[in-house]
């Protein structure tokens, strides 16, 4: 949109309709969707009143796809076609998973770019699986809220790298969701708590979910959340506690090799037992295996704590590291926010309390807190928030840099830098007469490029031939608010430039995604046309609102002819809203947007002038 919306300090923007936006916690185990209603965030429920949707997708007969509880229930009987924990696989390759893959009950298709699971409906990537979960949450939201969504904020673990973030965005795109922003889960939790408690100081977010452990150190000041450091373990969560109990059960019953059906059955039973042990001191696992053997095992809370105490302790090391990274000590921590279903376990609460010497904060539901925070952020980004603005700063989870001579990695943006950020560094040629330079972008903490993750390569050509070391090439790294990177290189004397938006060299490429989108469109061409139209109408209305509001304030900046043109374009656009197609509406939007370009520029000048009037140079 060309038109700049500017409101005077202290004055709210022009009144406009409430735009439907949601926050989505796309979890390894459970996913949730929340929205802000009458100023407060709430999680939306399914028809049975549940807020959590198990992150499980089953590819059934024909083209039937089940998501959530029904899929979870089928996991025991149809493990090969029922995909859970897709989040552990998203944005990764089989090589990344290494031996982990052998513990998963799926059939993997050999593919170097992306993990692919062979189901009865053909090969499915974790991106497609996740998009089914997002679609289910999207329809839940649209049915509950009675309208199309303007967009969503989707949360990701702080540990997610570029590929995993990009893959999450791709999943959203496939689900037909407009991603307003990706948000780190611990940051979302802090938003939920920050608004409720209006606290200031340094806080720790301890998030133990089903598949990941994240810890973040946050600095909260009035209206500002700053993530000082993040850490954790992307392969530690409630699943591991289930696994310990599972092994214990096998030992107790002298079982060695189980078929997939029996393993899935026992796994779901030990998980239920584990959850019971937070409110009971004993739980019983009872089952009949495929070969008719009966299992009856009593597990006490004490036994369970004993079996898993070292898993709990494993979370403390990353906590210490994050404190160190943030340059703070335990004594500086004003509060510890507990997030994730696994923080319900009593020995987890205890260990955290003991380490910090204080009772952790858990007055918000640990399952819901991330989605609630995401909803608050979505509400702000959709433009619904009218009172005081607040800033949100996030950090990069890993260092970003490039390869220099000798295969060494030079860090440009160190880990835990606040984003969005941009940093430049000058490099030079190492050979006389060198006219091209390959920029190899890497991510990681290690010194050698071979130990870091390669993100992208591009070449700057047309460097004027000079003696080695004379050329000056400025390389600029820019990380946007979603944590996605773009890199540019410029030779300083000639201005020759090359740049790249760093798209990971793994995951789905754009063509594949476009093809998938096309496929889904040809299945539901009418749906898509209706959706495109609805989106165009939303865009048209928001532009019209903005122009009308601007005209009310500043129409004296326009001469009669310009004003008449704008008014005619508004009328034309309004005329098309009723029955024109998406393309025609968009054409009118573009026309109005063009005819207001000049107006926008004049308004900006006026506002800058107003802002500067009456201030001395020292104030600026
Ligand atoms: P994720 O963010 O990974 O999707 P959640 O925050 O939803 O995960 O947490 C899911 C985990 O929490 C599962 O391992 C589940 O067994 C565990 N969990 C949920 N409720 C309880 C409970 N009452 N006691 C112990 N663990 C629980
Ligand atoms: Mg979670």
UniProtKB/TrEMBL annotation:
Gene3D superfamilies: 1.20.1270.10, 3.30.420.40, Actin, Chain A, domain 4, Substrate Binding Domain Of DNAk, Chain A, domain 1
A Pfam family reported for this protein in Swiss-Prot or TrEMBL: HSP70
GO molecular function terms noted in the UniProt entry: ATP binding; ATP hydrolysis activity; ATP-dependent protein folding chaperone; unfolded protein binding
Signal peptide: none
The UniProt record lists the keyword ATP-binding: yes
This protein's record includes keyword Oxidoreductase: no
Example GO biological process: iron-sulfur cluster assembly
Keywords: ATP-binding, Chaperone, Nucleotide-binding
NCBIfam families the UniProt entry points to: HscA, PRK05183.1
Similarity-based family: Belongs to the heat shock protein 70 family.
PANTHER family per record: HEAT SHOCK PROTEIN 70KDA
Function summary: Chaperone involved in the maturation of iron-sulfur cluster-containing proteins. Has a low intrinsic ATPase activity which is markedly stimulated by HscB.
Protein name stated in the entry: Chaperone protein HscA homolog
Biological source species: Neisseria sicca ATCC 29256
Lineage: Bacteria, Pseudomonadati, Pseudomonadota, Betaproteobacteria, Neisseriales
Gene designation per UniProt: hscA
